[in-house]
């Protein structure tokens, strides 16, 4: 393999010479060379081990190099590497069945894509054709992907330089009590006011123009804001009342991340379409898709669906999904994520907040947690601006790495998102490293 041929130094040199990276000015990049990964750990070119509290881009839900998933891919590669989407194939059929089995009642059909962004593109296309309407509502503080429609629906600054007209996207504020847009002081107030805001937005945009509302069940990259009780049920009711398709984006929250197969299970709501990717096969081979309600599937029974991809339902990716979902069932990996969140990681992070005033709020569930970092708990002033970064955040990231953990950070937040397979001992190791890194951050801020 290339790993055998290239030294870490040569890997780095060729990267800087020939590789163009995502979302970055290329000049200043210093990518970490990763040579090996196993379970919750990765190793850099110097042989230093890091606990992966990022799950890469929050996708390695069964950890790195899970032997059953590696074997599933190898066996499929030996049998049949690729086949066009118009044929039927066992890996694809089985993956679709396993996904439908864990999806809510009434969602039984799967359209496979290459990742999350194109899952959103196709879900929106289905919703528009199903309803005959065009606009799509989505939240500020959201991420839906880097392709045309998905980035327009995204409610974060990555949309700004990519916005050449709205593509029918209209944004609204979701519930977020800690930084309430509605001046609410209780969860009940936040739910009521956020729903009133959405209802009014629908009335003013024209319910007859709105094809879909797309929202992350628990917004991920934007800050892991678990919706308060009643909010998603209220969204479902508004969609029903106005003939709007409810698309739940579970690309990040799905497949065990929140301690459930799909995060909507926490809230007792059934969306019309669910987009997934990442955790479905832990990202070992690119895969995403849309789980489709029976009603929307029926729209395309006699009418062609005008969309497709050469690699829709790619056998290697689907074999990885079959092995991942099977391992998750056999090893009770979703249950582990749930228990870790309730018994170890959640309490451990709250305990850190008691000792570190820089933590303004701890929020999350399962293995899906965010620390909202502030200069002052009263004013809640973040330690980096919205859409930007700061020296303090750079100090924090460096301190995390110096203490042996890979963090996931966004603006002023540190996300703690280990694999769903993480053990109690690994969580405790991670918490100790974060404790030390937060002390370094506080020493820097005090200076
Ligand atoms: N939707 C959500 C909620 C995501 O978190 C992401 C990626 O982080 C996407 C969509 C886009 O997925 P991809 O990067 O696979 O295109």
From TrEMBL:
The keyword Hydrolase does not apply. Keywords: Pyridoxal phosphate. GO terms for molecular function: pyridoxal phosphate binding; transaminase activity. GO terms for cellular component: cytosol. InterPro entries: Aminotrans_3 (IPR005814), Aminotrans_3_PPA_site (IPR049704), PyrdxlP-dep_Trfase (IPR015424), PyrdxlP-dep_Trfase_major (IPR015421), PyrdxlP-dep_Trfase_small (IPR015422). Belongs to the class-III pyridoxal-phosphate-dependent aminotransferase family. This is Taurine--2-oxoglutarate transaminase.
């Amino acid at each position: 393999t290339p790993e055998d041929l290239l030294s870490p130094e040569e890997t780095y040199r060729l990267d800087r010479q020939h590789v163009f990276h995502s979302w970055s000015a290329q000049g200043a990049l210093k990518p970490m060379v990763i040579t090996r990964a196993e379970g919750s750990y990765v190793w850099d070119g110097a042989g230093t081990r890091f606990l992966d509290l990022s799950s890469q881009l929050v996708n390695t839900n069964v950890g790195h190099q899970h032997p059953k998933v590696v074997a599933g891919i190898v066996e499929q590669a030996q049998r049949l590497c690729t086949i066009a989407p118009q044929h039927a194939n066992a890996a694809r059929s089985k993956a679709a069945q396993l996904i439908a089995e864990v999806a809510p009642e009434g969602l039984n059909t799967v359209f496979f894509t290459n990742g999350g962004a194109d899952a959103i593109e196709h879900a929106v296309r289905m919703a528009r054709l199903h309803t005959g309407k065009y606009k799509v509502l989505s939240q500020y503080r959201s991420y839906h992907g880097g392709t045309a429609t998905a980035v327009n629906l995204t409610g974060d600054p990555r949309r700004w330089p990519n916005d050449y007209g709205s593509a029918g996207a209209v944004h609204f504020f979701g519930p977020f009590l800690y930084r309430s847009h509605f001046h609410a002081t209780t969860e009940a107030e936040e739910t009521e006011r956020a729903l009133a805001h959405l209802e009014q937005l629908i009335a003013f945009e024209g319910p007859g123009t709105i094809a879909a509302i797309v929202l992350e069940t628990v917004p991920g990259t934007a800050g892991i804001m678990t919706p308060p009780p009643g909010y998603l049920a209220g969204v479902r009711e508004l969609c029903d009342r106005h003939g709007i398709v409810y698309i739940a984006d579970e690309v990040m929250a799905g497949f065990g991340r929140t301690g459930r197969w799909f995060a909507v299970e926490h809230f007792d709501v059934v969306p019309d379409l669910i987009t997934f990717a990442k955790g479905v096969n832990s990202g070992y081979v690119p895969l995403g898709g849309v789980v489709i309600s029976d009603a929307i599937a029926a729209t395309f029974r006699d009418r062609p669906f005008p969309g497709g991809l050469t690699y829709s339902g790619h056998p290697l990716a689907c074999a990885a999904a079959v092995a991942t979902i099977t391992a998750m069932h056999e090893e009770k990996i979703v249950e582990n994520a749930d228990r870790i969140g309730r018994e170890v990681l959640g309490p451990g992070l709250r305990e850190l907040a008691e000792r570190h005033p820089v933590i303004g709020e701890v929020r999350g569930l399962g293995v899906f947690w965010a620390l909202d970092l502030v200069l002052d708990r009263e004013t809640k002033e973040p330690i980096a601006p919205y859409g930007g970064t700061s020296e303090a955040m750079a100090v924090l990231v460096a301190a995390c790495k110096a203490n042996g953990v890979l963090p996931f950070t966004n603006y002023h937040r540190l996300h703690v998102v280990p694999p769903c397979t993480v053990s109690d001992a690994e969580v405790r190791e991670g918490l100790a490293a974060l404790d030390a890194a937060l002390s370094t951050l506080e020493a820097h801020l005090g200076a």
